[in-house]
Amino acid sequence: MICRDRSGSFADGARTGAPQAIQVADRFHLWQNLAKAAGKCVAAHRGCLAEPAPEAAGDPVPPAGTAGETAPEPAGKFAERTRRNHTLVHALRAEGRGLREIARHLSWGLHTVQRYDRAATWQELVDGRWKAPRASKLDPFKPYLDQHAGQGHGSFTRLFREIRDLGYDGSYSVVRNYLDQIRPARTPLPQAPPTVRDVTNWLTRRPDSLTGDEKPRLTAILDRCPELQTASDQVRAFAGMLTELTGQACPSGSPMPATPGCPASRRSPRG
User: Fold this and answer.
1) 213-263 pLDDT, tens digit each
2) In the prediction, which pLDDT does 268 show?
3) Are 257 and 237 in contact (CB under 8 A)?
4) Spatial separation of the C-alpha atoms in residues 86 and 117, rounded to whole Å
5) What is the DSSP string of 156-192?
């Protein structure tokens, strides 16, 4: 009996030197050849290795009972004082009084009178919301920032320098705060799919040697690909035959039956 590897030159030498001898392959080379066949099968189904793209979520459904509802009127001492002061300022403005004159008449600060005058309704003052944003030096340059920040163009400091060259003379903090609001949040990159070598390694290793991360990933791949599931079952069956020395159970020819959709494995030497 001659135990040899799969090289054709060794087979020719064995036939020439001992034509009556039985040629067999050792377990190492049998497993090595099986691993190569499994690798070809995995490569033929590499499209199954990546996780399927998540389905696009539909439009969010508004909570029941919110459509058509109006917010309750602000209440309390502060709300009542704000309503009274807002009415007073707008009544004086309707008489043609100027802001400074009203401030002197009521002994209020000019900014306080301006705040009541700008608000169209007293509720805006209580809620802290203005009818429209205040003018800013940055307003003429916001379209430029919207365009380039949305494209991921450069850093905040680079965009600040670019609009400064275009005529902006405001501070960097104003630009940074605006960009923080409009720049889309970066989504984390999905986990890279395993390579053909990775999956082949998982298929041909002892199941109890797989890590806690490798086991679920291999299970998910086999669930998505029936051909790889069949190949995995055949690899496990052949591994049991090698370790339990039940070679008589192996059919003559290929050590692993052909798997649909996978390249055929090389034939083993006959006994």
Assistant:
1) 889 989 999 998 899 899 888 888 888 887 776 666 555 544 455 556 666
2) 46
3) no
4) 7
5) HHHHHHHHHHTT--S-HHHHHHHHHHHSPPPPPPPPP
Instruction: Give the angle subtended at the CA of 19 by the CAs of 15 and 21, to the nearest 5°.
Output: 100
What are residue 133's phi and psi, to 5 degrees?
Answer: -65, 150
Q: CB of 222 within 8 A of CB of 49?
A: no
Distance CA 166, CA 150 (A): 19
SS (H, E, C) 34-86: HHHHHHHHHHHCHHHCCCCCCCCCCCCCCCCCCCCCCCCCCCCHHHHHHHHHH
pLDDT at res. 88: 92
Cα gap 194→218, rounded to integer Å: 9
Buried b / exposed e across 115-132, counting CB within 10 Å, b at 16+?
Answer: bbeebeebbbbbeeeeee
CA angle centred on 125, ends 120 and 126, rounded to 5° = 130
Q: How many residues does the chain have?
A: 271
User: Can you tell me which residue has the tokens 């990546």?
Assistant: 50
- Residues 169-212 have pLDDT tens digits of 888 888 888 888 776 666 666 778 889 999 999 988 888 888 98
Query: What amino acid is encoded at 116 in this protein?
Result: Y
- Classify the C-alpha dihedral 26-29-35-40 as positive or negative: negative
Give me 156's structure tokens.
């905040």
Rounded CA-CA distance 165/146 in Å is: 17
Cα(165)–Cα(142) distance, integer angstroms: 14
Going 134 to 138 to 140 to 146, the CA torsion angle's sign is negative
